[in-house]
Predict the 3D structure of the following.
Amino acid sequence: MQMNLECDYAIRIVDVIANAQTRIDAKTISERSCVSLRFSLKILHKLVTNGIVVSFMGTNGGYELAKPAKEITLYDIVCIIDGEYRFNRCIDSDYVCTRRGKEKICPFHDIYCDITKYTIDKLKSYTFDMFLDTK
């Protein structure tokens, strides 16, 4: 199991913007994050739409974080790009598991819930201020 490429790129892009600590243009974001400009723009649109990044038009245009880096977690980005994290689909309330009937109890369900909770808590514990360059 691994994070999808778009989510990885979105984390890189937010990191670049956070480290710029000022307005930064899409071309520079693309170059510093090693993400194509076209894909960067697609991701930036999602980040703007979801309130992580603010965009500015014109000659002094570019992108900035919409809120302080300490208020943006890795989990926020994962949710924007991939949706709410679940280790397994059986954790969703609308999923009907064939192993969780009246008489059967799936031995893995509680384990999957624990893994999901642990992962979410861990992703929420990392904020983008933790990755700021201190050069």
Summary: The beta strands are 53-56, 62-65. The mean pLDDT is 91.
